[in-house]
Amino acid sequence: MKKILLPALFSFAFTALYAQQTLIDSIYHGGMYRTYILYVPASYSASTPVPLILNFHGYTSNAGEQLFYGDFRPIADTAGFLVVHPQGTLDANNEPYWNSDWGGAVDDIGFTSALIDSLSAQYSIIQSRVYSTGMSNGGFMSYTLACSLSSRIAAIASVTGTMNYNQSLSCNPQHPMPVMEIHGTADPVVPYNGNGTMSSIVSTLAYWVNTNVCDVTPVQTEVPNTNMVDGCTATHFVYQNGNNGAEVEHFRINLGGHTWPGAPIVVGTTNYDINASKEIWRFFSQYDLYGKITGINETSEKSIQCYPNPTNDVLYFNGDDIDQIQAYTLLDASGKIVGEGTLSEQISIGQLANGFYILELAFTDGKHSLRILKQ
């Protein structure tokens, strides 16, 4: 899907403006070198794991343009996450694109997984807090990852994208997937009401509301029209009470075009009542792979205490119900079992990689879970 290209100078300006914090690199995957631009905030420290946002460009665009147009850098500076801007390959028309079931032999799902692996080997990333967003074709790609790489993606947000027509029939998310869609009703490129190749926004939202078992009636709020000259308004919909706390949010940009709300330049009817990047991070920050984040120092309803949490090695346990625990199972962010046995008063996890883990304690009356952070 075409989008209006930013001026060429934006493709190069980042090298001067953010040279100390913006890195251009590549990985070898699928028989070719695949490039990306990574933004690392000054606050980053290897001793503290941080979230990662994948920010995919639109069709005919590129990683440098997306870095500026859908800009997360000021937010990353204060919230402390990494942002990676992958570069797509060229299609038959010699245009950059993401193969979100759009044809061709390029495995962009595999590339994304390999990119997460590569960045995780170089930086301290919370494996349960990897998110995907993007513009247009990048939004399509985010939905494709939600369907086919959900074991690694905690939540997605699409700006001016949607799902392919009938993509829901082959979609297979492995956990409730929080979804945000930001879309203009007058989008001439990805029509709000869909067409023969693209799902309507209403249908796409309905699929994820049903998949997450959210309330079918959303909480609807009119966003204050703080900018009277942008030619559009915004309505916010929130579908609540999904499994694991997963919600579906939608900003309907009334009369809005194929644009990123709050963008630094105007390339069409662009809404300035909201800032898409800020709304997306607000949404993402609520979730990890296990659902709504309620804190890492959780205990079960049994009288069990787990400390220290976070830890870099040994977990200690005490409590009145500790003698009722029959066994424990430790699972990583992908759901893989990385430890199991009989619980005494401590477990060593020093050999495990940094990240979130779920400790399932088996009692006679069921299982109770604790969220553990290894760092």
Describe this structure in words.
The protein has 375 residues and is of the alpha+beta class. The chain has helices at residues 10-17, 63-69, 73-79, 108-122, 137-148, 201-212, 276-284; strands spanning 22-29, 32-39, 50-56, 82-86, 89-90, 96-97, 125-135, 155-159, 179-184, 219-222, 233-239, 248-254, 287-288, 291-292, 305-307, 314-318, 327-331, 337-341, 346-348, 355-363, 366-374. β11 and β12 (248-254) form a beta hairpin. α1 (10-17) crosses α2. The radius of gyration is 21 Å and the shape is globular. Mean pLDDT is 89; it is low at 1-19 and 295-300.
Backbone shape: globular
Helix content: 10-25%
The secondary-structure class comes to: alpha+beta
Write the CATH homologous superfamily of the largest domain: Alpha/Beta hydrolase fold, catalytic domain
User: How many separate domains?
Assistant: 2
Radius of gyration over alpha carbons?
Answer: 21 Å
Oligomer: single chain
Strand order of the largest sheet: 1-2-4-3-7-8-9-12-11-10
User: What gap, in angstroms, lies between the N and C termini?
Assistant: 42 Å
